[in-house]
Amino acid sequence: MFAGGEKVVLRLKNFSIDFLRHASTLISFGEKKIYIDPWKLPLNPPKADLILVTHEHYDHCDQKAINAISQSGTIIVTNQSCASKLGGKIKTLRVGETINLSGVEIFGVAAYNVEKKFHPKGLVIGFVLDFNGERVYHAGDTDFIPEMNYLKDITVALLPIGGTYTMNEKEAAQAANAFLPKMVVPMHFNIVEGTSADPDKFASLVSKKVKVKILCR
Predict the structure, then answer these.
(1) In sequence order, which residues have a C-beta less than 8 Å from that of residue 63 and are 6 or more positions away?
(2) Nearest residue to 154 via CA among 138, 171, 174, 173
């Protein structure tokens, strides 16, 4: 299964987001390149300053992809569960902790399934990245969990909508409506079997207070 169509780069004041499909995301912050869950990569991808990995599943933690974008100074940020699966310069982060690297404040947030078996507590970590006051939330593989109600001042939220392993369109919209980011980007759909979803359906369920940015289909 593959999501086709044109991709759009989201450009904001302090950073830009190139959504590479599934959960793979490239954020440019000045000259810094920050990847989250690199698995789907473009041809000749730019080298990474930081790589953030939410958990150890193959479609999020791909050592081959990480090697392709790594250079001598690349730092990988992940949780303790995933750190042992990876090589390279690794910084571990726990839920509730903050680390500052390359001028970016990175805060670890909870991510887990409520009634599904795929992502128990402790397997996944989500991230909030602060770019000089503009904040990006990458939810990782998660359901709509109570901790999301405490998210504040999120500029862009990347939320999974594919169902089966994560939230579906309705649940992801409920999450967005709970913490009201300025913008929300649907992710984790129409690539892996079991993640078929309609981003337009998701958009129709999101509060008018939130801008929905569909960066690929």
Answers:
(1) 85, 86, 87
(2) 138
217 within some domain:
no
User: What's the total number of domains in the chain?
Assistant: 1
Q: Could you tell me if residue 113 is inside a domain?
A: yes
Is residue 1 included in any domain, yes or no?
no
Other C-beta atoms lying within 10 Å of the C-beta of residue 176:
27
CATH of the domain at 126: 3.60.15.10
pLDDT tens, position by position, 116-173 = 999 999 999 999 999 999 999 999 999 999 999 999 999 999 999 999 999 999 999 9
Query: Measured between alpha carbons, how far is 177 from 179 in angstroms, rounded to an integer?
Result: 6
Nearest to 50 by CA among 10, 21, 15, 84: 15
Domain span at residue 57?
9-212
